[in-house]
Amino acid sequence: MTLTVSEITELRIYPIKSCRGVKVSSIKSTLQGLYLDRRWMFVDAENKFLTIRQQSKMTLINTKIDEEKQQLVITIGDDKEKQIAVPLFPDHEYLEKHTKPATVNIWGSDTKAYMYTDPKIQALFRDFIGDGKEVNLVTKDPRDPRICAGNGSPEVLGRQATVNFPDVLPVLIASEASLAELNGRLKAQGEEEITIERFRPNVIIKGGEAWSEDSWKTVRINGSSAPLSNWMPSMVSGMTGAVDMDVVARCARCQVPNVNPDTADKNKHQPWDTLMKYRRIDEGIKFKPCFGMLCVPRNEAEIEVGMRFEVLATTEDHHYMKGF
Question: Which domain of life is it from (predicted)?
């Protein structure tokens, strides 16, 4: 079997769950996902997570990493008057003064966080996405690991993996070829083409056939064609600085991709209707279409755009397991 050999064309992180992401040329891939990816999120008055599913305007909240000041800069649209900044790695003194401990809930699962108590932060986002109701910004408490469930659970994966605030699993990889195939179908129906940003992936690759990712089992970034690479992937990745990832599930989609990330307008039908016609391919979740693959890193290393991407192994046994 000829396996996919490609390259990374884009890397994206989404510091705040469901808000606008950041394109980067290089980033550290950690065991919990890409560096700073989904380390923050918004919660409602009951401390339940908020996403584009409930409020499409969240996509208009821009994020920026200020490496010099070591801050996350958050801006509503391009309005500098509606901008705040918080430390990337708050120390004990900052946490004591500006936050309070909180237990937050993602899909029925509780995890520990720190909730920002600055009235300016609370008012800014309450007025924009809360429609006057309570909205709070939280950051993950690193002392409380959130253990992956479903396809990434210890019983299935064979090891314990943890994640910040993604729905279930640390890394989402998407293929330009598959997006092009979908766009071809949309265009044939007189619909506008869409961008990969709608699917909020972390790693975007080119090359390979459309939908070949459906059967990926193990992939390598900065791939090596060394003779031992398939037999002893962990050893080879350690020697070459590569990142190996277990591809544990297809990504079952909701209607978030129907939201235009530039305008927050939600299309009532597309691309959901088209995907539903031919991408309900996973026996584990027949009522949702699939786009992209969910992965769990085996090791940590720096990755960058242009790096080689290689599929080391494939499987015909992917079966989505509910992770919440």
Answer: Eukaryota
Q: Does any domain span residue 295?
A: yes
Q: What is the pLDDT of residues 183-230, one digit of tens each?
A: 999 999 999 999 999 999 999 999 789 999 999 999 999 975 444 344
Q: pTM above 0.90?
A: yes
Count of domains in the chain? 2
- The CA-based angle 255-256-258, given to 5 degrees, is 70
Task: Give the closest residue to 139 by CA, choosing from 72, 200, 84, 76.
Answer: 72
Instruction: Determine the Cα–Cα distance for residues 178 and 172; give it in Å rounded to an integer.
Output: 14
184 shares its domain with 209: yes
Strands 203-206 and 171-175: parallel
Residue 169 and residue 305 in one domain: yes
Q: What are phi and psi of 112, to 5 degrees?
A: -85, 145
What H or E segment, with its residue span, contains residue 86?
A: strand 83-87
Is the N-terminal amide bond of 170 cis, ω within 30° of 0?
A: no
Q: Does residue 319 form part of some domain? A: no
Alpha helices in the chain (DSSP H): 92-98, 119-129, 154-157, 176-188, 233-240, 272-278
**Comparing C-alpha atoms, which of 73, 276, 250 is closest to residue 168?**
250
Pick the last residue of a domain from 78, 111, 142.
142
- The residue type found at 231 is W
Contact 84, 71 (CB under 8 A): no
**Residue length, the chain?**
324
pLDDT digit string, tens, across residues 55-80? 999 999 999 999 999 999 999 999 99
